[in-house]
């Protein structure tokens, strides 16, 4: 039996510029210096300084030592044409620091660091010799569970499910798994040739479209899993009188909180659920919770922890293998990890839906369908 205490590092990025106000960074200066100035400072610090920080170390069940390393530019900057090469360089520097100075045994990648490094392949080609995981296998397993929880909660019977961002690593695997489970799936993304490949891979079982509005308005649940650094749900895609059930796996969110409330105020009925949020039976004192409430973790982070707990020293880069999704799901059950109760922007879902329903009632003087939905929660 392997009794080694493994060390791992989770390498991720600043999600939005306002994160500079978190206590681990500069909470006072974060408010004193305007955010548009911080956006320039992020780039300058990254060009002429280290560009990353180790913000936390923690023990997991007495069996794993973990570190969290943040590259200090925002998600939007990371994926921009102008700065993506800088972001890749910073991610590589942070990973080499974890490998060569912290002497970790494996590296896990966050939402944007994985996408800009081709799921970790870039790192393996440029000096990272220890195992790397993009964490998307357990993100898929967690996402499937979250959608099942929504189906049960809202009393759906075999709903049509759309996947927004369907041929990405997570989107592809979720599409194929849901299709294999017998659900009708509408796969939505921009590249029609990639969608056609996905359709063939599904055994011609999935419907494909490049029209976001069509996908949203012809499904009962929409899973959003793009790496876009902006809201992919906009008013022109929506119809009044329809309830939209959204499972948002984007980091940054695929529907930003301020945009969500703007749509609610305009009379749209949206039930949005945080996707890929996990918790665990035993406490892990991570200290820096990456914008999440204490005890809540991203599924990709959990996959790294599960890999370290089980001593799995393999690389998991590139596409998500469907059999590995099941492996990570079983590991999570063994170690007590599970999907969080349904939330919206880290708040109880019932509370958010009730507030949205009340806003509709005050605005129009009549009760909307959201009021009935709130009673189910």
Key words describing this protein structure:
single chain; 377 residues; alpha/beta; Rossmann fold; 2 domains; 6-stranded parallel β-sheet; 5-stranded mixed β-sheet; 15 helices; 16 strands; 41% helix; globular
In short:
The chain has 377 residues and is an alpha/beta fold. It contains 15 helices and 16 strands. It folds into 2 domains: 6-137 and 279-339, no CATH class; 140-277 and 342-376, NAD(P)-binding Rossmann-like Domain (Rossmann fold).
Topology:
Blueprint: E1 6-14, H1 27-32, H2 35-48, E2 52-60, E3 64-74, H3 75-79, H4 84-100, E4 106-109, H5 111-116, H6 121-124, E5 132-133, H7 136-153, E6 161-164, H8 169-180, E7 185-188, H9 192-201, E8 207-209, H10 212-217, E9 221-224, E10 243-248, H11 257-265, E11 269-274, E12 277-280, E13 297-298, H12 299-309, H13 322-335, E14 337-339, E15 343-344, E16 347-348, H14 349-364, H15 369-376
Parallel strand pairs: 1-3, 1-4, 4-5, 6-7, 6-9, 7-8, 9-10, 10-11
Antiparallel strand pairs: 2-3, 12-13, 12-14, 15-16
């Amino acid at each position: 039996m392997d009794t080694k205490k493994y060390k791992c590092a989770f390498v991720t990025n600043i999600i939005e510029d306002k994160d500079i106000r978190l206590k681990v960074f500069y909470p006072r200066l974060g408010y004193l210096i305007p955010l548009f100035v911080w956006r320039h400072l992020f780039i300058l610090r990254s060009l002429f300084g280290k560009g990353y920080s180790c913000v936390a170390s923690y023990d997991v069940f007495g069996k794993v030592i973990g570190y969290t390393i943040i590259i200090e530019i925002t998600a939007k900057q990371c994926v921009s044409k102008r700065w993506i090469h800088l972001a890749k360089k910073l991610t590589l520097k942070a990973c080499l620091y974890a490998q060569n100075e912290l002497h970790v045994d494996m590296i896990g990648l966050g939402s944007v660091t994985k996408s800009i490094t081709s799921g970790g392949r870039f790192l393996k080609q440029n000096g990272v010799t220890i195992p790397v995981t993009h964490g998307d296998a357990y993100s898929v397993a967690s996402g499937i569970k979250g959608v099942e929880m929504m189906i049960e909660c809202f009393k759906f019977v075999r709903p049509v499910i759309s996947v927004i961002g369907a041929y990405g690593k997570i989107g592809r695997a979720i599409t194929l798994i849901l299709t294999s489970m017998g659900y009708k799936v509408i796969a939505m993304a921009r590249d029609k040739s990639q969608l056609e490949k996905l359709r063939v891979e599904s055994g011609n079982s999935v419907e494909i479209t490049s029209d976001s509005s069509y996908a949203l308005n012809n499904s009962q649940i929409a899973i959003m899993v793009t790496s876009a650094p902006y809201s992919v749900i906009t008013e022109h895609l929506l119809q009044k009188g329809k309830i939209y059930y959204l499972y948002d796996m984007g980091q940054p969110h695929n529907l930003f909180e301020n945009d969500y409330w703007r749509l609610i105020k305009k009379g749209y009925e949206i039930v949005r659920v945080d996707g890929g949020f996990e918790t665990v039976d035993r406490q892990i004192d991570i200290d820096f919770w990456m914008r999440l409430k204490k005890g809540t973790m991203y599924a990709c982070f959990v996959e790294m922890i599960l890999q370290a707990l089980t001593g799995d020293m393999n690389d998991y880069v590139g596409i998500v293998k469907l059999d590995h999704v099941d492996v990570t799901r079983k590991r999570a059950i063994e170690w007590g990890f599970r999907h969080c109760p349904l939330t919206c922007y880290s708040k109880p879902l019932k509370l958010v839906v009730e507030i949205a329903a009340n806003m509709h009632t005050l605005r129009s003087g009549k009760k909307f369908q959201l009021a009935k939905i709130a009673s189910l929660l």
